[in-house]
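Data availability excerpt. The first of two example chains:
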Amino acid sequence: MGNNKKSIFLIDFDITISKKDSTDVLLETHQPEFKQELRKRYRAGEYSIREFIKYGLGSLNITKEQYIQTLQENVIIDETFIDFVKSGAKFKIVSAGARLNVQGTLSKYGINLPDSEVISNDLKFSGTDKNEITVENPFLDKEGYYGVDKREAVENYKKQGYTTYFVGDGPSDYKALEVADFAFVRKGTRAVKFCEENGIDFFEFDNFNEILEWRNNTSY
């Protein structure tokens, strides 16, 4: 490997690691009509990504066990991510969804990530007769739009002297892709167009083995 400098991969979760958006899956399973309403409002610009997550996950009247079970039954991942984890590359997951979506889904694949490895929103489950879910934003962006400041996550690692790679697919990743040392973008996603239009140097990947191969062949 050509790197003598320390490097880290900051990786988005939904559609980048998972095949489907995990919040969409939860809503589709338990609140399909409300999901359509939320989508409509988000597309019309009435709701931010943060509000979509807040109202969406907040509408799920299910227990934590049911929540995790829904993820494990319905969310599948790009299994080459398992090889990526085994490779020993340093990484953290950065998601505008929820930490439990990441941990709950990945635990099915034997990937058990502690809280410190997932930069995302926290969920609080409460209530005896009604299962209330509250979304908390410990990494809130200044605009309060995305819910998680992915750009700040990249900048924090750059300040610590890391070569920082960002891996993503969509709008909540754009600000991070702009400041990362190098960008990896899931093939055929909106982020490809974004990088092309904004002159961002990127590698379009189909699976995580291609990222590992790139890393092993490049002294970046």
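And the second chain:
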Amino acid sequence: MVSSGCKPDSDGYFTLVCFLYQGGEFETALVSCKESMEKVWVPIFSTMKSLVNGLASISKIDEAPELLEQMKVKFAKSAVMCSQVEDGLRK
């Protein structure tokens, strides 16, 4: 896509991340999510939560704190939900 002169927008990144984690491609989804966040585009809470849980399911728990911090910043009003996700990782 990029090589043909198209530039992805936030919706493109969010859709890509969503379909990647749904397909079990958690590490690739993480790379795309990080690229998106570098552009200050943070996916919705449910996408971030699913990605964090997916990473935990494949023992990539070390990657989760960075995403959790982004969730806390972006979704400050959802602090309780962020804490629940974090607590779930500790179990």
